[in-house]
Design a protein that fits this description.
alpha+beta; five-stranded antiparallel β-sheet; 4 domains; GMP Synthetase, Chain A, domain 3
Length: about 375
């Protein structure tokens, strides 16, 4: 195994690994080879000799009492794994029962079989380290946006996207409804899940439909969010249709909504374009649940909000009901998702409002109403 460290350095460079990583791999591969060639019941140890550029392999033999049964065992491997205290002291007078003596062995003496086994073990261990490094690299990217090139779309409409040294999958369910990709397209998405199995290796799942993807796109477009001046508290979205984002700032000199929307909406429009025209409502966050829910119901004007545990009763004028609910119920659904409350609408009508004010002084109010009407008419005549 002389000069093998030169090979190690070359392998490290080729595979983009650290030299120390490849050295550890080599030591593990040599031990595994020794186990398969010499015997798995033995203990082995390796030492790197930097001066000679080689790795030394040692077999460890356990020192036992002279009458230990293993010394006369029928199995040769068991007999070979121990040495009597009497014999041990002939080699090392300081030896004691329980000590381990080291005997250097060379894999070359086992011929071509050992060389092939070492090569295979080394390749397998190198592959394990490479995969482990890639796994850790992308595990740290969970919740972050990465950009890659579409390489394949399978029969189930799952999109496969390539990044550097690996390919990830964007499932159909995690793609915005209506968007289609072609091979060669560059696609932004968020890393949703990273896992590694013995059978399939590293698997990376991407998404373009999570609220986190929207938040990270805002972080890319809005410097104030990127530097922490504006903080995104929560986000809710129905992908490709509409979203609500609650933000706040601890800097009194910053208008968080204005900063996020940008001049003439340039920042928010850039994010919307990436999300297939998704409409994005930016809301000032407040820890006061009633006020937060009232803002979340925008563009509807809310009369009052009463929060009870996980339920919120929202009183609203009948004229505001269509705005509160939104097309296909999208506005009230997003408000519920954003605030975490189950929303119950308590509708009141304009006629109910007038009835509730009747009683003492109602005639005076009617007279005032007539006077105001006459005044308005005279203005238009003029």
């Amino acid at each position: 195994m002389e000069r093998i460290l030169d090979i190690v350095d070359s392998l490290a460079h080729q595979r983009g690994l650290k030299g120390e990583e490849v050295r550890d791999v080599l030591k593990k591969a040599m031990v595994e080879t020794a186990k398969s060639i010499v015997g798995r019941e033995f203990k082995y140890e390796t030492e790197i000799d930097d001066e000679e550029k080689k790795v030394n392999l040692f077999q460890k033999i356990l020192v036992v009492a002279d009458d230990d049964e293993r010394l006369t065992d029928e199995e040769e491997e068991i007999r070979g794994s121990v040495i009597s205290i009497s014999e041990a002291k002939e080699e090392d007078e300081d030896a004691e029962i329980g000590d381990e003596l080291s005997y250097e062995i060379t894999l070359e003496e086992f011929g071509r079989t050992a060389s092939m086994a070492l090569h295979n073990n080394l390749e397998r261990e190198l592959q394990n380290v490479t995969e482990s490094n890639i796994f850790e690299k992308y595990k740290e990217k969970i919740g972050k946006i990465i950009s890659g090139t579409v390489t394949r779309i399978d029969g189930n409409d799952n999109t496969f996207i390539e990044f550097d040294e690996i390919r990830a999958m964007l499932p159909k369910k995690s793609r915005i409804k209506g968007e289609n990709f072609r091979v060669g397209d560059t696609v932004k998405s968020i890393v949703k899940r990273v896992q590694m199995t013995r059978r399939d290796g590293i698997q990376i799942e991407l998404s373009r439909t999570t609220p986190k993807f929207l938040i990270e796109l805002l972080r890319l477009e809005v410097p104030e969010i990127s530097d922490g001046s504006v903080i995104v508290e929560k986000a809710a979205r129905i992908p490709g249709q509409r979203a609500k984002v609650a933000i706040y700032t601890t800097n009194a000199d910053i208008d968080p909504v204005g900063a996020t929307v940008g001049v003439r909406g340039v920042r928010i429009n850039a994010v919307s374009d990436e999300l297939q025209g998704e409409n994005i409502d930016i809301i000032n966050y407040t820890p006061i649940p009633e006020l937060f829910l009232s803002r979340a119901m925008s563009p509807a004007i809310v009369g009052s909000v009463v929060c009870e545990d996980e339920k919120a009763i929202v009183t609203i004028d009948s004229e505001q009901k269509p705005r509160a609910i939104g097309k296909s119920g999208i506005n009230i659904r997003l408000a519920s998702m954003l605030t975490g409350f189950e929303i119950e609408l308590n509708e009141i009508t304009s006629s109910n409002s007038s009835i509730s004010t009747e009683g003492e002084g109602s005639e005076q109010k009617e007279e005032e109403k007539e006077i105001n009407t006459e005044a308005l008419s005279s203005l238009f005549k003029d």
